[in-house]
Design brief:
This protein is about 45% helix and about 15% strand. The chain has 13 helices and eight strands. α3 links the parallel β2 and β3. The longest helix has 16 residues.
């Protein structure tokens, strides 16, 4: 069994429980099952004729979710696959339609603390950032092999950092001296580029946007989200729900635009005109919830 991490708290569970109504024989798809937090919440609503389908690209998450959900009375199907391929996975298992599709686009605490994944600059880790270790390209590959202009464009597009040109220039200068292979190395380079020492940041670390940009690029996160959103209408039963929890504006805009366009086409009824945010009490208990934005639509 996977090593148990510091407790992971799923976000916006009360809001989801309030908005989502499903029968006990429903088909639920948790497109990012993680360590099973949301899955346990909704899986408990299902009876013996219900089906819970959980996907994740991280094999440790699949293993941990299996342990967490093992006592559910419903049928549990866990799949190590990207949610971009949800249509194919459902077809392969002869699951025609879902009553509820949930995608929590954040990564869990265990992944952040996993030294092999290299997602954090709080401790020094190999510069990897692959949520799925079957992927070939790592963040170190991008940082050390991408030309300066393309690297700057990537940091600006996916990280929305106005200092992207300067950051890219400093990265190229540093890698000429030695390869950048650790998260601490990269964080230090970004701090020097932005003329901010590592220990003088307040709420947002100077390297946060660069790390976000690289993680998105390594895992092809936005394209995969678009593929899920495109497939979802054909996978939902009439009256079924799709709920997406995003953690930055690039994700949220994709979800907002997709829901609006499908509403205009008569495919969805948008239930959340504005995204649902975590309460002050939830943020106090779980700081990760601060940036979470939940949008929900219902299939017509």
């Amino acid at each position: 069994m996977a090593e148990r991490p510091v407790a992971h708290i799923p976000v916006l569970v009360k809001a989801l429980a309030k908005w989502i109504n499903i029968p006990d024989d429903a088909v639920i798809v948790d497109a990012t099952v993680g360590w099973g937090g949301h899955g346990l919440l909704f899986g408990k609503r299902l009876g013996k004729h219900g089906t819970f389908v959980g996907l994740d690209v991280d094999e440790k998450c699949i293993e941990a979710a299996g342990e967490k959900l093992k006592d559910l009375v419903c049928k549990v199907v866990l799949i190590r696959e990207n949610f971009a391929n949800l249509r194919e996975e459902m077809e392969e298992r002869q699951i025609k339609e879902a009553d509820f599709i949930l995608a929590d686009l954040g990564f869990c605490s265990a992944q952040l603390d996993d030294n092999a994944k290299g997602l954090s600059f709080q401790t020094d880790m190999p510069l990897d950032m692959r949520l799925d270790n079957r992927l070939e390209r790592t963040a170190a590959d991008i940082v050390n092999k991408t030309d300066e202009r393309s690297l700057a464009d990537l940091i600006y597009k996916f990280g929305q950092d106005r200092g992207s040109r300067r950051i890219a220039r400093f990265i190229v200068q540093q890698r000429r001296r030695e390869p950048i292979i650790s998260t601490a190395q990269l964080a230090g380079v970004v701090c020097r580029a932005l003329a901010r020492p590592v220990k003088t940041w307040s709420r947002i670390h100077p390297a946060t946007r660069t790390f976000q940009a690289l993680r998105i690029a390594v895992n092809d996160e936005l394209d995969n989200l678009q593929r899920l959103l495109y497939a979802a209408p054909a996978l939902l039963k009439r009256g079924g729900y799709i709920a997406v929890i995003s953690f930055h504006s690039l994700e949220d805009k994709l979800v907002k635009d997709d829901f609006r366009q499908n509403s205009q086409r008569g495919i969805y009824a948008v239930m959340t005109k504005k995204p649902i945010r975590a309460s002050q009490a939830e943020v106090a208990e779980n700081t990760r919830a601060r940036s979470a934005r939940l949008r929900i639509a219902q299939a017509l």
